[in-house]
Structure formats: structure tokens, C-alpha cells
Amino acid sequence: MIFTFFKYLQPTNYFGLIRYDQTFAFPKVDALPKETIQQLEKDEGFVSEKSKAYDLSWQALQKGYIGDAETYQSFEQLPLADEYRFLHKYFHPVWCVYVLLLRLFSFKNPFREISAYLKGRKTQRSQYLQSPLLYPAYENFQSSLIESKPFISIIIPTLNRYTYLKDVLKDLEQQDYSHFEVIIVDQSTPFQSEFYEGWNLDLKAIYQEEKALWLARNRAIQQSKGDYILLYDDDSRVDPDWISQHLKTLDFFKAEVSSGVSISTSGAEVPQNYSFFRISDQLDTGNVLLNKEIFKTTGLFDRQFEKQRMGDGEFGLRVYLHHFLNVSNPYAKRLHLKVGSGGLREMGSWDAFRTKKWFAPRPIPSVLYLFRKYHGNHQARLALLKTVPPSIIPYKFKKNKLMLLVGAILSVFLLPVIFIQVYKSWKLSSKKLKEGDRIGTF
Quick check: 369 and 304 in contact, CB under 8 A? Predict the structure, then answer.
């Protein structure tokens, strides 16, 4: 971690891991272009010069630096006061208290911890998201990649959503880039073969009797003809320039992955942290364009996540570890309808941490499998501490700060039940780890 305390608040963040080529994502400040450094704010309040440099590196990555500057291969230990200053600068005060309590309960020196925490409270909260790094040349960029017309395979798994799939295909018919095929892996009951007749598309429908999302995507990738794979969902809507914006971004940044953004309300603004180009710390298989060559290096999707959660997160992490450039693309957006029937809702759960039964595993075992496999048991436990208490409240209240507090309080009273749930999940994830991954080769 560039700042050690970051591990408490985002214990399973991609950028906390060193990549297979022994580099981190954070650029060295002295290697950044002058025009980038001019848009960063040096914080003289840090005690250590190294902390000041790390803070600038953090800013650069978070504000959207995408370039070939040399990155760090290791990080030095920083003064305690600087660690708390970093927390207060970028995170809500509640989370700063949370970290302090974790440190105190871990038998750290209380005088040093409280003193450093109190010094950090004087730090002004950063508004870095309001001044992202901009790429004005993008607007008028003439993409040679688009002009070369690479063939794209759009892959859509579907399950009992013909009503919504109809609109999906209509949107694809309206795309201003037309050199693509559509491969639909249909797991619906009953299968309606006549639905796929009459479309003005290079359309191939594959019926799959087994209801398995990652099997469907792997199967379609293996049968695809495209140079690029565009993964999409069956309950989404997109604008006519959706494909061309993905391609343009790949070309502009010389990237291997373009991760589009999702909004859940028509006409809604793109969330602030997704409103500008930046190196992506996630991969959403409902809206992402990838160079097909990636699968030869990383393998396909891990079927240990079948009927569970975070299979796309695991694949995205593999993409990051292999140092493929994954750009968060605000222009390739989709409206994700998140309809209440069909799709993943019929195969598992939308939520990784909320259970439907009192003594069901919490979180879903595949989540702990992912955390433990790549981040280790310690980071997995930190992730449980941060995510399980808020999951006590219903999904619809997950952004309500008051209800999150209520959930944290309730978790104290429900501790015996939660302990059983987490124990079950941990045990089942251990079984997955023992079995090993189920990543197919391409």
C-alpha cells in the first residue's frame, strides 16, 4: 500500500497489490510530465518528504493520470502522523475513527495513536474529484483503430429476459459502428428460437441448457470470431456511439481494456468518480471491451464463481496483475435497468453480503475465495470487518448513512448469528481454495 493505513479502508483494492512484473500502479512523481504535476497540490503538512511524494502519486492516479511514467516497485514506512493525515485528507471522519479503533484494539501504543490522530484532524478534506486531469485532445481525436474496422464479438448471456433483450438488439442495430457479430448464449426456459429471426444483425444464438453465467461467457468467447470482445448484459440500453466510444478510448490511450460506466436511471449523471478517464480499479462484464489477446494470457473466467458473485472482479484483478491497461471510460455508458426478474436473480443473488436466510453464509463464499486467494487471510478479515456490519441493513438502504450506523449497532447484538454465517462462508471458501481455480484456457 502506498500509505499503509489505506489497507484498513480498502483492504482488497486492486492497487494494493504488486503486479506480476513487480510494479505498482502508482507513478513516481519525478517521472510525471510537468503539465501533470502542475495540476496536483503539494501538501506541505506531511512530515516526511517521502509522504509528500506518495501523496502526489496518489493524487495523480486518482485524478486520472494515464501514461508511461515509471511506477513504484516498493514503498517505505511513513511517520504515523502522515498516515493519519492521509486518512483525514481523503476519507470521511467516521472512517478515520474506525481506523483509530482498529489500531487501539490491536494493542498499538494508545498515546502515539491518539496523538497522531488528533494532529490529522486538522487536515482539510481534499476535493480532488472536482479537478480531474483532462484530455482535451480526445474530443477531436481521429481513431485509426476505428478506420481499420476491427471485427468485434458482442457477447450477451441471457436468461428469461426476451422483453428486455428486444430493446438490447434494437440498440445494437442503431450503432454507428457496424463491423461486429452478436453472440447470445440463451439459458431461458422455454427457449424461443423464433425470437432471433429477422434482426438486421450478424446474430448467433446458442442454447445452453445449464444455467451458468461464466460457462456461457467462456463458451461464447471460445466461439467468437472478433479481434475484440465486448461483454454486455441483457437488461441494458446504450447510445448509437457506444461501440465507437469504446474503440476510440482503446486507441487514444493505447489500452487493452475499455471499462464503460453504468447508470441506473435514465438521464442521470455519471457518478463523479466515473466522470473522467482514469486507470480503472474494476471490470464490469456488463459493459467492457477487451482485446481478445488478453484471454490467451489470463485465461477465461473462473467457474468457481458460478451462481455466486464477483467473477468479473476476479477476472479484472487478473487483468491488472498482468499489467494490461484498463481505462475507465465515461463516454461508453449504459443504462443498466437491473430488472427484478430473470438473469442473475434466478441463478443466485444480486448482493454479495446480504443473505436470504438467517444461517446462510455471509458473505457469499466466492467473495472470500477471491479475497483470500489474492490478498491473503489478513486482508480478507479486514474486509469482513468493514463490509459485514453495514450488510445487516437491506440493500435499498446501503447508501443511507444513518441506516449504515444502525446496521453497525445491530451487528453487535447479532454477533453470534453473524459469527456462524461468516464461519460457514470461510469454511466454504477454504474448500474452493483447496479445489483450486476453474479457469479455462483460450
Answer: yes
Q: Quick one: which of 398, 316, 306 has its CA closest to 344?
A: 306
With b meaning 16 or more CB within 10 Å and e meaning fewer, what string describes 316-355?
bbbbbbeebbbbbbbbbbbbbbeeeebbbeebbbeebbbb
pLDDT single digits (tens) 130-184? 999 999 999 999 999 999 999 999 999 999 999 999 999 999 999 999 999 999 9
| Short-list 363, 335, 333, CA closest to 350 | 363
pTM over 0.85, yes/no: yes
Q: Which domains, ranges and CATH numbers included, belong to the chain?
A: 6-130 (no CATH), 136-344 (3.90.550.10), 349-435 (no CATH)
Task: Say if CB 311 and CB 302 are below 8 A apart.
Answer: yes
d(Cα 408, Cα 390) in Å, to the nearest integer? Answer: 6
Q: Are 123 and 47 in contact (CB under 8 A)?
A: no
How far apart, in Å, are the Cα atoms of 68 and each of 142, 241, 323?
Answer: 22, 28, 12
Q: Helices (H), strands (E): how many in the chain? A: 16, 9
Tell me the pLDDT tens digit for each residue of 59-107.
999 999 999 999 999 999 999 999 999 999 999 999 999 999 999 999 9
- The CA-CA-CA angle for residues 356, 360, 364, to 5°, reads 85
